[in-house]
Amino acid sequence: MSSDHFSSLSQTLLMGPGPSCVPEQVYTALSRPTIGHLDPRFIAIMDEIKERLQTLMQTDNRLTIPVSGTGSAGMETCFVNLIEKDDPVLICKNGVFGMRMEDVATRLGAAVDVVEFDWGTPVEVDALRSKLAEKAYKIVAVVHAETSTGVMNPVAEIGALLKGCDSLYLVDCVTSLGGMEVNVDEWNIDAIYSGTQKCLSCPPGLAPISFSAKAIEALQARQSKVPNWYLDLNMIVNYWQGQQRAYHHTAPINMLYGLYAALGVILEEGMDQVFDRHRRVHEYLVAGLEEMGLSMAVAAESRLPMLNAVAVPEGVDEAELRRRLLQEHDIEIGAGLGVLAGKIWRVGLMGHTARQENVDRLLQGLKILL
Amino acid sequence: MSSDHFSSLSQTLLMGPGPSCVPEQVYTALSRPTIGHLDPRFIAIMDEIKERLQTLMQTDNRLTIPVSGTGSAGMETCFVNLIEKDDPVLICKNGVFGMRMEDVATRLGAAVDVVEFDWGTPVEVDALRSKLAEKAYKIVAVVHAETSTGVMNPVAEIGALLKGCDSLYLVDCVTSLGGMEVNVDEWNIDAIYSGTQKCLSCPPGLAPISFSAKAIEALQARQSKVPNWYLDLNMIVNYWQGQQRAYHHTAPINMLYGLYAALGVILEEGMDQVFDRHRRVHEYLVAGLEEMGLSMAVAAESRLPMLNAVAVPEGVDEAELRRRLLQEHDIEIGAGLGVLAGKIWRVGLMGHTARQENVDRLLQGLKILL
């Protein structure tokens, strides 16, 4: 019965699209004693988690909490709370996660329009402006850091475009939060979600979200109940911020300890310092790859620091290289998805992983294997 | 920044309705190094988790997996995958979790009928038989261990009643699994869900579920897509049991380490031994409480071993007692919910908590405070 997978688990260098490497403080937090989800000591931790998330997301939104599921549950939460049947929704699509938004919103009965861009290129604000001139949308949604392609979308510019318009601005910051600036209030974002296993460097399992006053108004003006009991924010807020802290579902206590610690690690280093580190280590990686004759799949001005799409050289078996990198060098990198499968590797420099010595280890491994 | 809530966290004796006390092996597992969700070493752990859940649920169902959310996400998963608009659903209601089923199914557009019983009493099979004679239902749903009242519902008998009938039999075993027999195959259960923080003695965060071949047929015969991307089992199974292990959402790696270890602890002790221990410790608690002049709120034949509803004596401030028990004795017990608020305490004897020495500690505390 006690065949032990764990004793042989090494601290693999996680340089894929997430999960990323987890700092020691977070592992320690995960294994602290479980207490009750209504225990005053736990509620104090919840309150600080909310504050820490507000700081990192740069928002005064009171409804800023972690949802009890992974990043995709965050996506589901934002859409299911805001969409009613036949609501017009516009989705910017230039990768897997824009596609996923389309699927989620369509399943919920929205009237979904899509403005599409080539994978590996960013959303063009002008194309979006034309689309918005044609029709009024309840929700306009975009992915900040498109993890499937390594492209950074112009979330601040789109926010400026939407200023003063009735649409709710919904943003995916799963991969960006904690690795680059996310400024919810300045960018006019109404609903945003993230995940813990990317630049927050906590294991997967929680999805931080934030809703603006305008989004909460829309939620409260619904004609129909949210068709998802588990993710209904009307009830979840009673637990996270009500006077009575009414039980909704049992919160994932130990995962929340982990998130609390992970946010502490980032804020202690300093947000600007953390974002700078991601940028510097990204540039160091690009220089090293180019020196080896490898090339990046995304133009320099649209590259994400934390997710690097590297073109697979002609004649190289990309899956075999990943397999050997993992087995022989204990380094994980990611494969391409969708139309980019087989064409790119995805090298993550997320959170605790984003360090020069880790890039050196990867470059060393690649030199041996290529 | 490093205001440390953790250093002061004691190992509170968790005798509420969950979470329960967590054994050391599970804490250790939670803090093992995170690896990738597509790493072959992780897939080997996933495979063993499925086997261990099949053993504990006594089922050959291939689709037996943990869902990435707490117990209520398990409820949502079972209903959202099986319900299409206007499907007739019958729910047995004798507590909060039957009520929750009604709410979940109604939000999903089902035509919900309810057969209701007094809180604190079990579902009556005869009443259910009459109801089933009137109308054909796609789904008949019942809670095995009604955590809000301490009542055990006759899940095996209802399964026998439904044998040969077209209805899908949907069971909540959140609180029963791991503390008493749950025999999915022999009881003709088609869809079942649980949670990790009760008798599995793992922190909250995952919801083991199992679907029979008949339930999978119903899922595959749907006219409409599952209106919940995150919990769509059509896609989730591709990750958990597909040849290719296609990425759906990033699995909660470390929580799954914890579940793997928690299931190992139970199977190592032996299922029958574990169930016996729950029964014996429950009887020891009841005897001790009665000796003190306290009385149980549920008739002996319907009592759950792991969730004990104790009548609050006349004139006692029940909330104040719970507060002092926690602050002065580091013991958590639960309050009543709904119509039982203020009338009962809920004393959990779940999993690792179910030990005679813990009962002694509680009785000692109660004697001092009452």
Keyphrases for this structure?
homodimer; 370 residues; alpha/beta; Aspartate Aminotransferase, domain 1; Aspartate Aminotransferase, domain 2; 7-stranded mixed β-sheet; 4-stranded mixed β-sheet; 12 helices
Structure description:
The structure is a homodimer of 370-residue chains. By secondary structure, chain A is an alpha/beta fold. Chain A has two domains: 107 residues, Aspartate Aminotransferase, domain 1 (Alpha-Beta Complex), CATH 3.90.1150.10; 244 residues, Type I PLP-dependent aspartate aminotransferase-like (Major domain) (Aspartate Aminotransferase, domain 2, 3-Layer(aba) Sandwich). In chain A, 40% of the residues lie in helices and 15% in strands. Chain A is built from twelve helices and 13 strands. In chain A, the strands form three sheets. A seven-stranded mixed β-sheet of chain A has the order 2-10-9-8-5-3-4, with helices on both faces. Chain A has a four-stranded mixed β-sheet with strand order 1-12-13-11. In chain A, helix 4 links the parallel strand 3 and strand 4. In chain A, helix 1 runs antiparallel to helix 9, helix 2 packs across helix 9 and helix 10 packs parallel to helix 12. The relative contact order of chain A is 0.17. The model of chain A has no long low-confidence stretch (mean pLDDT 96). Chains A and B meet through helix 1, helix 2, helix 3, helix 4 and helix 9 of A and helix 1, helix 2, helix 3, helix 4 and helix 9 of B.
